[in-house]
Automatic annotation (TrEMBL):
<dbReference type="InterPro" id="IPR012951">
    <property type="entry name" value="BBE"/>
</dbReference>
<feature type="domain" description="FAD-binding PCMH-type">
    <location>
        <begin position="1"/>
        <end position="118"/>
    </location>
</feature>
<dbReference type="InterPro" id="IPR006094">
    <property type="entry name" value="Oxid_FAD_bind_N"/>
</dbReference>
<dbReference type="Pfam" id="PF01565">
    <property type="entry name" value="FAD_binding_4"/>
</dbReference>
<protein>
    <recommendedName>
        <fullName>FAD-binding PCMH-type domain-containing protein</fullName>
    </recommendedName>
</protein>
<dbReference type="Pfam" id="PF08031">
    <property type="entry name" value="BBE"/>
</dbReference>
<keyword id="KW-0285">Flavoprotein</keyword>
<dbReference type="GO" id="GO:0016491">
    <property type="term" value="F:oxidoreductase activity"/>
</dbReference>
<keyword id="KW-0274">FAD</keyword>
<keyword id="KW-0560">Oxidoreductase</keyword>
<dbReference type="InterPro" id="IPR016169">
    <property type="entry name" value="FAD-bd_PCMH_sub2"/>
</dbReference>
<dbReference type="GO" id="GO:0071949">
    <property type="term" value="F:FAD binding"/>
</dbReference>
<dbReference type="InterPro" id="IPR016166">
    <property type="entry name" value="FAD-bd_PCMH"/>
</dbReference>
<comment type="similarity">
    <text>Belongs to the oxygen-dependent FAD-linked oxidoreductase family.</text>
</comment>
<dbReference type="InterPro" id="IPR050416">
    <property type="entry name" value="FAD-linked_Oxidoreductase"/>
</dbReference>
<dbReference type="InterPro" id="IPR036318">
    <property type="entry name" value="FAD-bd_PCMH-like_sf"/>
</dbReference>
C-alpha cells in the first residue's frame, strides 16, 4: 500500500485526493505548498487510511468534525476486482460503511477530502511533573469556558519507566498563527520540564509528536459525556496505581491516559456514518495506551487495561453519566471488544453491507474489526 502515496490538490473544487499508502506527515507536506490542509492525525507516522476508516479524531475536530465528516468520497477496489467510487450519491451504502467501518467491504485505495485554508498554526506541547492539581484545574477551566472551535487541547497523564517518573504532557493547538490573548495562560504558567509551543506549520507541529516505536503496545478506551474533577482524579490515580503495580515486573513499561475534551457540537459537522452509531450526544474519548517490551507480559497488560477501563466507567456512572452503553471509539478499542459495544444498532446494517459487497468474505483475510 505504501506505493499509493499520491497527494493531489484540486484548486477548483478544494478537494484533495490522498492515496491510502500515505502517513499524515506526507499529506500535510504535500498540501503545504498550496496553503491548504485537511482534518487528520495529531501524531507523526500515523497512516491516513486506517485512521480515516476508523473515524478520525483531530486537533481540528471542534471546527470541522471527525476526519470522516470531511471525506467526500472513497476509491475502492471491491473483492470482485471492480474499482468504484463511493460517495453520498453513488454506492452510498458503501460510503456509509467506510465512514468508521474499516476495511470490511473492499480495498480502499484513495480518500477524497475537503481542504481548508491554512498557512501557520499555533501549538506544541508542555511536559511537566508533580503538578497534577494545577494541570487538572487548567484542563477543567478550558473545557468549561473555551467555546472557540479553533482551539483544542490533548492532556496525557503518563508513566515512563525509562526515566522512572510520572509526567504530564499537554498538547495545545489553535488553528491560526496566534490564539486569542489569555486562552492558554493556565497551561503556559505551569512549570515545564520541556515546552515547545510556537507558531509553526502543521507539519512541524505533528512531527514534534513521533509515534512510539520499539515496544509492544495496545490501546483501550471508554466514552464519556462530560469531564469532571472527580473523574480526572481517578485517571491520575490509575496512572499512579498501575505504574507502581506493573513497573517491577514489566520491562519497558510506558503508560498513558489521554483525555480528549471536545465541544458538544463536534458531531454536528457530519452525516450518518458507520461510527458513531448516533450523533445525538457528543462523546469524549478517553484513550489508554500501554507499551511494554516482552511478549510474556501481553496477557497481564490486556487484563489490566480492561480492568482500568471498567473501573473508570464505574467512576463516571457513579457521578451520573449514562455511559454504560456509550459506543467505544473503534480506533482505540482493545482486541476482543464486541462489535455492538462500538457500533450499536448499526451492526446489522453493516453486516448487510458487508454481505452485499463481499459475499465470499475475502476481506475476512485481513486484520481489524470484522462484520
Amino acid at each position: 500500500m505504501t506505493r499509493l502515496d499520491e497527494v493531489i490538490y484540486d484548486a477548483k473544487t478544494s478537494i484533495a485526493k490522498i492515496g491510502a499508502g500515505n502517513v499524515w506527515d506526507d499529506v500535510y507536506e504535500g498540501l503545504q505548498p498550496f496553503n491548504v490542509s485537511v482534518v487528520g492525525g495529531r501524531v507523526s507516522g500515523i497512516g491516513a487510511a486506517g485512521f480515516t476508516l476508523g473515524g478520525g479524531y483531530s486537533y481540528k475536530t471542534n471546527e470541522y468534525g471527525l476526519t470522516i465528516d470531511t471525506v467526500t468520497g472513497f476509491e475502492v477496489v471491491l473483492p470482485i476486482g471492480e474499482v468504484v467510487f463511493a460517495d453520498a450519491t453513488q454506492y452510498s451504502d458503501l460510503f456509509f460503511g467506510l465512514k468508521g467501518g474499516f476495511n470490511n467491504f473492499g480495498v480502499m485505495t484513495a480518500i477524497y477530502m475537503k481542504t481548508h485554508a491554512e498557512t501557520f498554526v499555533w501549538g506544541g506541547s508542555i511536559t511537566t511533573t508533580g503538578v497534577d492539581e494545577a494541570v487538572m484545574a487548567a484542563v477543567l477551566n478550558f473545557y468549561s469556558t473555551v467555546t472557540d472551535p479553533k482551539a483544542a487541547i490533548l492532556p496525557t497523564f503518563n508513566y515512563d519507566s525509562s526515566i522512572g517518573i510520572r509526567i504530564t504532557e499537554l498538547g495545545l493547538f489553535y488553528h491560526a498563527p496566534e490564539p486569542p490573548q489569555g486562552m492558554f495562560d493556565d497551561f503556559l504558567a505551569l512549570p515545564a520540564l520541556v515546552q515547545n509551543v510556537s507558531t509553526r506549520s502543521l507539519l512541524s507541529l505533528i512531527t514534534a509528536f513521533p509515534e512510539p516505536t520499539g515496544l509492544r503496545g495496545a490501546f483501550h478506551t471508554l466514552s464519556l459525556h462530560t469531564l469532571s474533577s472527580a473523574f480526572l482524579d481517578a485517571v491520575v490515580n490509575e496512572t499512579q496505581f498501575w505504574s507502581t503495580q506493573l513497573s517491577p515486573s514489566v520491562p519497558g513499561l510506558f503508560i498513558s491516559y489521554d483525555v480528549e475534551p471536545f465541544l458538544s457540537s463536534y458531531l454536528s459537522h457530519g452525516s450518518p456514518s458507520a461510527w458513531p452509531p448516533s450523533r445525538e450526544i457528543a462523546l469524549l474519548p478517553i484513550n489508554l495506551y500501554f507499551a511494554w517490551a516482552l511478549p510474556e507480559n501481553d496477557t497481564v497488560i490486556h487484563e489490566v487495561m480492561t480492568q482500568s477501563v471498567d473501573y473508570l466507567t464505574e467512576v463516571a456512572i457513579a457521578e451520573g453519566q449514562d455511559i454504560a452503553d456509550a459506543p467505544l471509539y473503534p480506533n482505540y478499542a482493545i482486541s476482543g471488544v464486541p462489535l455492538e459495544d462500538m457500533y450499536g444498532q448499526n451492526v446489522e446494517r453493516l453486516k448487510h453491507i458487508k454481505a452485499t459487497y463481499d459475499p465470499a468474505n475475502v476481506m475476512g483475510l485481513t486484520g481489524g474489526w470484522k462484520f
